[in-house]
Amino acid sequence: LRPALRFTCVAARCADGATPRDAREKILYCVRHGEGEHNVAQREWRGAGKPGEPYTVDNDPEGRLRDAVLTATGRSQAVALRPRLDAIEASSRPELIVTSPMRRATETALLACPADGPYGSVPIVAHEYCRETGGRHTCDCRLDVEELRKVFTDPRVDYSCMFSESDPLWHERARESKSSLAGRAASLVEFLRQRSETRILLASHSGFLLALCNAVLVFEDPSADAAWFGTGECRVFRLRWEGVEDGAKAVSTPVESSSAD
After folding, report:
1. Is the model's pTM score more than 0.85?
2. How far apart, in whole angstroms, are the C-alpha atoms of residue 97 and residue 110?
3. Dist CA 110 CA 157 (whole Å)
C-alpha cells in the first residue's frame, strides 16, 4: 500500500533535542493522543465478548462517542509529556506543532505544550491530513470546524488547513480505504517538507501513525521503529528526504470521501 512518491523519506530514531544535520533533514516528534473514551469503550466491549465495535452507527446511534475526547487517564498521559518536552534545550525544541483536528489529539497537544509554558509562542496547525482513518466509526467523525473553534479557544490553534466545515471522510457504513489513508500520510510528509520549520511535533492517532511509519517513511528496522504506538507515546525520528530537488514544490493529495477498504 506504499503510495507512489516523487521522493524517499528515510527515517531513523533519534534522541530528544536532536537537530538536523543539513537542509534535507528534519526532526519529527510523533505523539499518539492519550487514552480516549473510545479506547475504554472498546476495551470494555471486547471484554464482554460482544461482536463488532462499540462505536459503529448501529451500536452508537446517538453519537455518544463522536469525535471522542480524552479520559482522565488520557489527560494525565498528555500532561506527563510536559517534563520531557520542557527539558529540551530551547534552541532544539520543536518550533511547530501539527495536530489532528480531532479533539483527543488537539487536547493532547495543548496539554503537553500549554500556552503558559516554553511552547507558548509555538504555532499549532490543525491539519486534516493527519487525522484518524475516517468513516463508519463515530469516534472518528470529527466535529464541524465551527464547533472545534468553540472547544479550543487557544489562539495558537490554526484551522486554515481544514478542507471543509464538516467531516469530508464521514460515511455511516464505509471506512476510509487504506490507500486513501496512506495517501494522506504521504501528503502530510510533503507538507512538513515544505514548511520552513525543521523541528516539528506531530499529535495524531494510532492508525495514521501506523500508515505514516509503514507506508511512507522508510526505516532500517521497521519492526522496532514503525510498530503500533501506545496512547500518550512519543517517538522522535530524524527524517531525510532523498530524490527530491531543493526547492521543489509539494504535490498534495486531496482528502477523499470514505469508501470501503
Report:
1. yes
2. 10
3. 9
- Give the contacts of 121 (CB within 8 A, at least 6 positions apart): none
Number of other CB atoms surrounding residue 38 within 10 Å? 26
Sequence-ordered list of residues with C-beta below 8 angstroms from that of 136, at least 6 positions apart, any chain? 56, 57, 171, 172, 173, 174, 175, 258
User: Dihedral (C-alpha) 151, 27, 211, 32: value to the nearest 10 degrees?
Assistant: -40
Q: Which of 97, 39, 45 is nearest to 230 (CA)?
A: 39
Give the model confidence (pLDDT) of 57-74 as tens digits: 999 999 999 999 999 999
Query: 35 is written with which cell numbers?
Result: 487514552
Is 130 in contact with 161 (CB distance < 8 Å)? no
Distance of CA 239 to the CA centre of its chain: 16
Cα(153)–Cα(111) distance, integer angstroms = 13
Q: Residue 176: how many CB atoms within 10 A of its CB?
A: 27
